[in-house]
Amino acid sequence: TKLSKIRNFSIVAHIDHGKSTLADRLIQSTNTVADRDMKEQLLDSMDIERERGITIKANTVRIDYKANDGEDYILNLIDTPGHVDFAYEVSRSMRAVEGSLLVVDASQGVEAQTLANVYTAIEADHEIVPVLNKVDLPAAEPERVAEQIEDVIGIDATDACLISAKTGLGIEDVLEAIVTRLPAPLKGDENAPLKAMLVDSWYDAYLGVIVLVRIIDGTLKKGQRVKFMSNNTLHHVDRVGVFRPEMEQVDQLGPGELGFLTASIKQVRDTRVGDTITNDRNGVEVPLDGFKPAQPVVFCGLFPVDSAEFEDLRDAIDKLALNDASFSYEMETSAALGFGFRCGFLGLLHLEVIRDRIEREYNIELITTAPSVIYHVYMKDGEMIEMHNPADMPDMSKVDHLEEPRIKATILVPDEYLGDVLKLCQDRRGIQEDLTYAGSRAMVVYDLPLNEVVFDFYDRLKSVTKGYASFDYQMTGYREDNLVKMSVLVNDEPVDALSTMVHRDRAETRGRAMCEKLKDLIPRHMFKIPIQAAIGGKVIARETLSALRKDVTAKCYGGDATRKKKLLEKQKAGKKKMRQFGKVDIPQEAFISALKMD
Ligand code: GDP
Ligand code: MG
């Protein structure tokens, strides 16, 4: 294929602004998929993606389009993940294409993820075509939103496409804009050694790992032997093809093209987004620059509620990890919770997705411990420890100081909720960096500790703004602060799964709130239970759960055996979701609920 007839692009948008619907329309209007095979949100495949309306893995589709100039074009669309947890993968995969459609809901305007995603596209040197979607809605204000795009993002929106992805209005204009306004790929050398970028990969039960590639130089063919440069592994290519969006094999892929290869690779782990693929010998010497594997930033423990399910959990985690290189795990034993795993995730959504899948697809009930970030613990002897579990906190007397990761958070919110948002950020130890207006919405930028955000910040933000705020963040670095480990003791036994890192100034308040919550969450027992929060050996908050005196079944009438039996069964079922700590049963939900701050 001639390079001048190829256009590679992605679609960037805030969630729900219509990215998937537009992709569907582009596929449908070019007859890439026969009408009878068309189903909604063709590119969103995973169940959780569909349910939550988010795209987790990038997908891709090759579209044939005969343009108004009478020429046949190949349009390659890659659908990048739209969530902040996957920001690194987005920024890598954006480098595999030359342009972006910037989709903005004309009834909503620019949102936080619009900004984050479009900046990533600008960083990747994309040509950008603004597309104002949902013009069919009565509330649509395309002129105002076009102005906003110019003011806030600083790109020309005079020739924005006005469309309704839902009705199909304006889709032709978008296709023409892709051809006329986005650049063709830079010229590559077909005869040079293979140089291809690994854009994405996922596991397929029949074919092994499917690797999405962008060819820069050289050609990729079936039967070829290739090398993945980051880990120096060699593979025999057994399939080369494109997505329409089903897989279709082709003879070869050349410079400028996007497609896939399979090579009987067993684990997604062996394929790193952003890696360079070349020939096994006489390949290129220098890989594509800037490659670094995505690093987990949020850690938590996953334990089976029923300890007999540990092996099942191991199995489930092994299987999920095959398909997710950015998820890390190692076995962990907790005095309180028994055997489980300490897992690392790219962010909270990523954590939720994995946890949901274990519970749903593998039917294992889980106890999730408090999410933690990675702290840098500087010891007095000069050593630095990367600590991702508060349970591993060394003795304070040997510690010189601690550093925690910080983020830059951008929040867009209607004016009327601004006060609540500022208060929330302030409560989470935020430092305001900027406050400007984008139309009737305020845009605030805060420097916040990641630890204060990973837990329930997003939920709180949504609730104080009735869902009208949008939020995005990026990691900025580490900074020293006065941080301490707070332990929780139930009936004088420390419950390691409830220990957290807190700021010294907030410790008493947090400790008190936690003890109060636990008092409500833990059922009464036949004896009195002290609940305490402590720093080092010093108790900073305390509650006492009073004893339960009567036998629960005593309430039943003497002769009613069935009722008594039912009650006992109910208790037994309830027990299953509890874990025993010394003599105390703690319900599973206590581990998460106790940590929520409100
Ligand atoms: P994504 O999160 O950006 O992929 O957004 P979706 O494509 O899933 O769209 C979000 C919601 O907006 C869905 O309920 C769509 O049906 C709806 N939607 C998308 N495009 C339009 C449009 O042009 N007009 C209207 N009225 N609704 C639309
Ligand atoms: Mg979508």
TrEMBL record:
Q: Write the record's keywords in alphabetical order, separated by commas.
A: Cell membrane, Elongation factor, GTP-binding, Hydrolase, Membrane, Nucleotide-binding, Protein biosynthesis
Where is this chain's protein located in or outside the cell? Cell membrane
Domain Tr-type G: start-end pairs: 4-186
| Membrane topology, from the record | Peripheral membrane protein
- MF GO annotations: hydrolase activity; translation elongation factor activity
Which PROSITE patterns does the record cross-reference, listed alphabetically? Answer: G_TR_1, G_TR_2
Recorded E.C. number(s)? 3.6.5.n1
The Swiss-Prot or TrEMBL record describes its family as follows: Belongs to the TRAFAC class translation factor GTPase superfamily. Classic translation factor GTPase family. LepA subfamily.
General function of this protein: Required for accurate and efficient protein synthesis under certain stress conditions. May act as a fidelity factor of the translation reaction, by catalyzing a one-codon backward translocation of tRNAs on improperly translocated ribosomes. Back-translocation proceeds from a post-translocation (POST) complex to a pre-translocation (PRE) complex, thus giving elongation factor G a second chance to translocate the tRNAs correctly. Binds to ribosomes in a GTP-dependent manner.
User: NCBIfam families in the record, alphabetically?
Assistant: lepA, small_GTP
State the name under which the record lists this protein: Elongation factor 4
Q: Which organism is it from?
A: Cognatishimia coralii
